[in-house]
Amino acid sequence: MCRHIAYTGPMLGLVELLVRPPHGLYRQSWAPRRQRHGTVNADGFGVGWYADGDPVPARYRRTGPIWADPNFADLARVVRSGAVLAAIRDATEAGADGEAAAAPFADGRWLFSHNGAVKGWPLSAAPLADALPAQALLRLEARCDAAFVWALVLSRLTNGDEAGQAMADTVTELAAAAPGSRLNLLLTDGETITATAWGDTLWYLHSPGRSTVVASEPYDDDPYWREVPDRTLLAATRTDVLLTPLKEPQ
């Protein structure tokens, strides 16, 4: 369920990253090639991007399928950015949250997306919710599992954890509380990309010193795409990609 992508590199048009590639995120909304759960991602979409000189990203999110929004086509034609996070959604279950449930979620300079599902949601997450400050729960944009996962990550970031530690600890905590969950997370601050592969596909395309793309699946057949092993934390910039194994919870 769901597909997402993050990019950091030279200025690039949204249309070049999301629409024009033969198997880009736009096409993945109805014809993903490597999606293991679900077949059509038509329950909302979102794009977040950074403008020069402004560390706080802009977002465009909608409730319907990306192919049915003519405003997105017009936006993608003119917007260019050196850092982007975008996602298309296949809802775990029906809900009334609308575009508030569509990634990317945001706070300050951060953009976040969750590709997967928390097993047994919401009962399985109740013990973790008890450990969150009341303010974090009151600020939830939506009642879906992805918004809750973002609250867990953001709580750690706010308390001073670096991005990789916040993502890794959130995944292992959720996996212990809700075994069988799929927890592919994607986070960027416009300079770095942090991601986890846990139960679903994750790939990256790296041009050293120039750009990095991290995505649920390749948007073309470039032979330099590399698959991230399951149970792995990815930390990337334009210049480097570091993969670190994640431990199964005891």
From TrEMBL:
<comment type="function">
    <text>Catalyzes the hydrolysis of the gamma-glutamyl amide bond of hercynyl-gamma-L-glutamyl-L-cysteine sulfoxide to produce hercynylcysteine sulfoxide, a step in the biosynthesis pathway of ergothioneine.</text>
</comment>
<protein>
    <recommendedName>
        <fullName>Gamma-glutamyl-hercynylcysteine sulfoxide hydrolase</fullName>
        <ecNumber>3.5.1.118</ecNumber>
    </recommendedName>
</protein>
<dbReference type="InterPro" id="IPR052373">
    <property type="entry name" value="Gamma-glu_amide_hydrolase"/>
</dbReference>
<keyword id="KW-0378">Hydrolase</keyword>
<dbReference type="InterPro" id="IPR017808">
    <property type="entry name" value="EgtC"/>
</dbReference>
<dbReference type="GO" id="GO:0016787">
    <property type="term" value="F:hydrolase activity"/>
</dbReference>
<dbReference type="InterPro" id="IPR029055">
    <property type="entry name" value="Ntn_hydrolases_N"/>
</dbReference>
<comment type="pathway">
    <text>Amino-acid biosynthesis; ergothioneine biosynthesis.</text>
</comment>
<keyword id="KW-0315">Glutamine amidotransferase</keyword>
<dbReference type="Pfam" id="PF13230">
    <property type="entry name" value="GATase_4"/>
</dbReference>
<dbReference type="InterPro" id="IPR026869">
    <property type="entry name" value="EgtC-like"/>
</dbReference>
<dbReference type="InterPro" id="IPR032889">
    <property type="entry name" value="EgtC_Actinobacteria"/>
</dbReference>
